[in-house]
Amino acid sequence: MNIVFEGGRLLDPRSGTIRDNTSVRVEDGRVKEVSQGTLAAGTAQVIDVAGKIVMPGLIDCHVHVFLTEVNLRSLDQIPLTKLTARASVLMRGMIMRGFTTVRDTGGADAGIREAVAEGSLLGPRLFISGAPISQTGGHGDHRRPVENRLGCACCSALSFTSRVADGVPDVIKAVRDELRKGADHIKIMCSGGVASQNDPLESVQYRMDEIEAACEEANRWGRYVAAHAYSIDAVKRAVRGGVRTIEHGNLIDEETAKLMAEKGAFLVPTLVTYDSMRRRGRDFGMTEYSLAKNAKVLEGGLRSLELCRRAGVQIGFGTDLLGQLQNDESREFLIRGQIEKPIDTIRSATIVNAQILRQEGKLGELVPGAWADVLVVDGNPLNDVNVLQDQGAHMPLIMKEGDIVKNALA
Fold this sequence. Notes:
Structural class: alpha/beta
CATH class of the largest domain: Alpha Beta
Distance between the termini: 16 Å
Order of helices and strands: EEEEEEHEHEEHEHEHEHEHEHHHHEEE
Number of strands: 17
CATH architecture of the largest domain: Alpha-Beta Barrel
Helix content: 25-40%
């Protein structure tokens, strides 16, 4: 589909500016031309967006499309076919909020990525980790204390979304297996977590040799490792072991932030999930144990974000919302707005996340050669991020890769 968006106000997240009266030509799923004033349309469809903001599609670098329940234990009783159907509903919500690309950090496989890419399911472009890798008793080991055997991934949705590996040989095998199955990156668990029921939040998981082995294997495939990590020790060990992105990082200190900057590690904060679990988690079956851990990371989230900003760490944008809470995705802009300017958060959700995905120049900005992921917005998000709220209500047009998935302008 060839389209010219004519006369809009182009939001450039790289420069942080708005360019008035700018037209964008889209051909064959890519941005072909960006020009001040009008463009010769030829046979292209012309869409008049005068006075409206035109901006690149948003990127969420920490989602779980297959974690369709807040109470993760209930996934154990859900067939994989039903899980996929529920995931399709969650993904539709994401793209209708303007997130045209997401990085799934645990659970989604190559099958659902390809189903979206071929148009069988409506959703954002997916980058996947496959099953996150956890040590026995770690954040990804969902067995109850009375269970000894691991569940079967072909029968249990909960077992499908993570795997257990112990010791260097087993970790290497697990990483290679996820890469074999098409993972774009590898996810490992380096600390306790909120939703898991058996590991303390501050627990430090995986030995250094196991972390280093995972990173070496991923790097040899041209991939990288993302690590779930909250505490100071967990983050330090992960970064020193070669981890490229730290997920969450709520409990770090100034020294740890400086280490991350020195090593070139990214932080992907997920502040909205703790806010959402505090407000709504109990309604959907979160345990008191999880809620108590959630209160601790909620308190430290903004402080860690500010420490990383001051240290010069590159900060991405993630949400990590579970199941029924995923409609809070866009609230991350509001929460980070307590300490950031709107352009800083928008850059995280565009330019920085494109770097994390190693898709610079292809995603996160509207420049010639980039994928044509286009949002048309009523109102200026550089002045008021509320226009990115309300489930995409202020986005009359959403385009992904040249295909219009929503058009209220006609």
